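Chapter review: from sequence to fold.
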Amino acid sequence: MNKNYLLNTLALIIGINLFAQTTLTQSADPITINTTGIACTKVIEKDYVDNSFYRVYKLSDFGISGDFEISSLEFGQGKARDGKELTLNIYTVDTDDLFTASFGAPIASTSYICSSGDNNKLISVALSVNIPTGSIIAFEIFAAENGDGLGSTDTTEDFLPGFNSGLENDHSYLQAPVCFANKPTTLTNLGFSNNRYVMNIVGSEVLGVNDFNAFKLSISPNPTKDIITIDTGSSNAITNMNLYNITGQLLQKSIKLPSVDLSELKSGIYLLEVSTIKGKATRKVIKR
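The token string follows.
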């Protein structure tokens, strides 16, 4: 499958390392939450049962070649009961087909207590863990059975994931043995292909000083009032450039020329991501 991934990049130079703030997402729209998804329930008792909602991310698919330091997890809350506790788990797995993947113990976990006031919102939860180079990450939201027999009202509002009408780059998965999904099973195979969970991982690719200095990269003039020129040296060549604002919003994409016109932009700090035949780097640009 051809995959077009969304990268929100924010570069910060700290010590000898370059940290590129990145959101790993399988959603064309990773922010909007306006639709409530499904979960497995007992048919007769109408009780919410154990549900695990999954997404998977292959670091190499996102152009990440170093270690990845996770700082937070994001997910859409379609509908939830006040006080419902969720467990958020991070795994590294051996394949991005979660139905056949081998799962060990989570390498990181955290909990989150739901509030119904956050229905149809994107939730962010802090979690810190380092993911080794070349890993495949599985992100699980585990919502446990309530077992209280309160009926359909409680079932509906226990926890249901949120999403939107945007397309997805890879499958959403549900595991719920009561509903015969004994392994993480795609929502398409379960007959709910429109359930496209918004589940994002936010973190930083950690590049060492050797990566940072892997090739010459100069930008001038910087600061600038209008046009900047990018020089990567005679033995290198630019293949693509993207310009972001400081919050990670993509402003200009697929720039091929060795210059960028900032004259129409407001004064401030911008981030230029430069891809070359020798690698990729992000630099800060100041517009006066």
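Two observations follow directly from the output. Confidence is low (pLDDT under 50) at residues 1-20, 151-156. Helices lie at 152-157, 209-212.
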